[in-house]
Amino acid sequence: MQKKLPDTRLKTGTALRRSLAMLLACLMFVQPLLAARSVQGIEEVKISLDLKDVTLQNAFIAIEKRSDFKFITSIERIDKKRKVSIHAEKKPVKEVLETILNGTGLGYTQVDNNIVISNKQERATGQVIQPAAAVNAAKEINGTVKDNAGSGIPGTNILVKGTNQGTTTGADGTYKINVPDENAVLVFSSIGYISQEIAVGGKTTIDVTLLEDVKQLGEVVVTALGIERNAKTLTYATQQIDGKKLTDVRDANFVNTLSGKVAGAVITQGSSGPGSATRVVLRGNRSIAGNNNALFVVDGVPIDNTARGQVTSDFGGINGSDGAANINPDDIESMNILKGAAASALYGSRAANGVIMITTKKGKAGKVSADINSGVVVETPFLLPKLQNTYGQGSGGVESTNSSMSWGPATQTFPNNIKDFYRNAISTNNSIGVSAGSEKIQTYLSYTNNYNQGILPNNKLMRHTFNLRLNTQITKRLSADAKITYINSDIQNKPRSGEESSVTMNLYKIPRSVDLNKYKTFEDASGKPTYWASSGIYMNPYWTINRTFESEKRNRVISLGSVKYELTDWLNVQGRISYDWYADRVNRGFYNNTLLFAGSGGSYADWTAETTERNMDVIVSGNNNLGKDLHLTYNFGAGQTYQKYSQVGGTTTGLTVPNFFDLSFAAALTQMTAFSQKELQYAFGTASLSYRDFITIDGSVRNDWSSTLPKPYSYAYFSFGGNVILTEAFKLPEVISFAKLRGSWAQVGNDTDPYRLLQTYTFTQGGRGGGYISRNTTRPAENLKPEISSSTEFGLDLRLFAGKLGVDFTYYNTNTVNQLLTLPQATPTGFQNQFINAGKINNKGFEISLTASPLKGKALTWDATLNFARNVNKIIELHPSVKTANLGGNTRTTTAIVREGGSYGDLQAFGWKKDANGNYVVNAKGLPVATAFDNIVGNFNPKFTLGLNNSFSYKNFVFSFLVDGRVGGVMTSGTDGNLAYDGTADYTEAHRQGGWVLPAVTETGEQNAVAIDAQTFWQTVSQGRYTWGEFFTYSTTNFRLREATLGYNIPTPPGMFIKSLRLSLTARNLFWLYRGYAKMDIPGLEKRKLPFDPDVNLGAGNYQGSEYGALPSTRTVGLNLKVGF
User: Fold this and answer.
1) What is the pTM of this model?
2) Is the dihedral of CA 67, 71, 75, 76 positive or negative?
3) pLDDT of residue 749
């Protein structure tokens, strides 16, 4: 029996108490939550603004973003060329308006939450815009005003042309207006959008889609350390993703949904189904022994994203989870990808791989609002291997009921064995987010429940996420922000990948003439597994899913507290502290009689691992006008990062009481212990100087002191950049709406792991005296340095045809030095290896993001985005004594390596030998001759990546789809090699009757004339688990319909408590558009098509390019309902 295990609630409670204490400390002066006030006067509401030489439209946008007010005005009243400047700290909106409207001839009137802008003469004569309901009218018009994405635009002005009669849209974009007759013309205008005029005619419903006006929009993006900057002043490439785009189509790990949406990102996932870690690489791999994953930063603070326990060999295992999977996409407001070194330089030794900046939702002042998102999907296998269905159990054409192979005679087969074994998995997602607040305090509260079934019976993931965020203005100058997130996840029976005790391999190895349904009764009366053949490795897959188990439970608390004080109108100081703690409880058991893994009575492992990361920093931020034309912004500060990891538990390969899974019944207990801690202290500074808002130069410096490096521990990182906004510096053709040239140089690092400087020891339990201590055979490093990446970047940002076409182009060139390599040591030293810094890796390439709005009709809109990227990697040098290095894993099929003159991720494997003239070579028996194992069969990195996203809206219907793919790169499949050996793969059906003469030459140079049969050929080149990898290496070039959604915005009457309602049909991994083929064309056989999903690797670490016993990826189809209140 499996004993019910204790949970980690005690320590979870400790973490919660610490985080809540932090939350309360930040808000200790805050009054109780204030009820939302219906309407506040412009003389009561106070805002802070810092604007220089911006248009009135941009000034109105800034006020709307910082308050609940919406502006009503005719756009033609505003002088678009007039610029205004203002610096206000907690000033009433009334005072702000009088400042920016001074000298414009315009005035204002407040009507509820609307601010009506009009000529002073109109106000004097009583001709100010009046609410439409107050005017006698013969006809009522209603409708919805939406943006490009189909979302309602609140606060849109609707005026009856030639009158002062008007109204505004509500929070959901709906409106009602009375018009005098059918000859009336309605003018729709909103700050930041191009206005439209529509004749009423005989219509009673008028729906409108407004196009963004790129000349007005001043996009603000979140950059390193959470610093907000105007996008047009940036000197480096970033890519913004709206949080709404992350919840349309879902995945158990939301990071997988970034595929195709980020130019230059290569995203792969582990092979253990729901809960597997995901790898995100931006602009190529840089580190041989270190981390290549992008850094995840939430609300300006890094979170732990360690992916422990990744499978790196064909013996297999269970891939661990990562930290980013715990991020709830429903809480994401926006995401900004900082790809290059200049963008991420302020993160110093953690920034080498780029940064994914996530900004979460906050509460808003005003009425209480809520959003509900509920969905259900059905998951089925996306791609299964093609098998032959002619020949059955046996060998050499002779039937054998004790054989595990399918080289027997032609007979009845069971084509659906594999398909029927998997289930149609049902997954659900339900979330609710509530926002409320007043001028003093705002609250955002959310809860999300995820339930994901795996396609394997008994496999499932359950996750609960609670989130609370409070923002408050404590005094006129003091504000605070506090957040706490609690995640509880439970993953049951995550499947093993690899060969041994893998469900996939046990299932695929079934002879084609064996009816798997007969073996659903997986054990006999004595408790032994039922099987169709004698085997020392493979088992009945029904035994595997019922008599092996795995449980991963995680409790995680992420908290953040910050306090900001405005020292002056131009200078503020902010202090932040974050705490990220999680505990994993893992239990794995194998029942008695399980091959390979179970000792007498069974086997069992039970351990708990705790991870802690604490970040603290202080940031001083300022901005000053240096005369009329220069504007300076700057930030400087210091901080500390502390990380700790501990593991404790035990394992046993035998149980004194059979199948009673508790370590107290261990036949021989082996302890599992691990501990590490690390501290990083840093100081930084950054400055940006703008001239007349069209030339910007900036720079940054950060100095790190790391506990993992030798004295003096200190390393500095720098960045420099500049840009010119051509459209503001020169008079360009009207077709060019916006143009910016940018360039930057930066240097960032990649820190190393703890305890590489000193001699370490390991205690092993067992033997005489209860155990022994052994010395680590790797010699301590004496002068270890961090890896350093120096990068140069140039780019061009263009907006054409009033924003209907956009181009973002970036070229980069990055050199990474001080690679951490292992140097073999002579035997007399007493060590086997030593860590050294050496080597140089170069990555260079380009990224292009194209945006277009081909159609912007009254009823039909079409928006498209194309992401395209190319990266070229080169190993410039390693070390005089190290010319080749392993990437942390190997299989008996292939090994991923780096080698001087090659590229990161070259794959080496046995292949088919060729002579000097390129002819295949066979031996005297007519069978292929193998090359040495150092034969390079390709590289696992793609040459190009691309993603094409299209969004359409027609009236209340919305439709979008994403096509993405990769060109180039290869992977080797150990699974395919096994299917070839057993005669189950579809291509093994050919040449079974013999007479197959391979067009090759003998080792003496003569033409081959010896005939062979298929079994002899395939068992020669696959050799079971010792496969000649080149025969089973495939091009990973592929294109697929990654995502598709079809939704309908259900109309809701004005004034109804439901503000928005959308029902959508969603799909992911719908079908392939193209799949690559086997790298080797075998004479006499048809080309073999890629039989697995190249997005799924053996693990999610640096060791890539290998598939072995992977659980198939899935296709999902479902329904989603979004409701706004």
Assistant:
1) 0.84
2) negative
3) 86
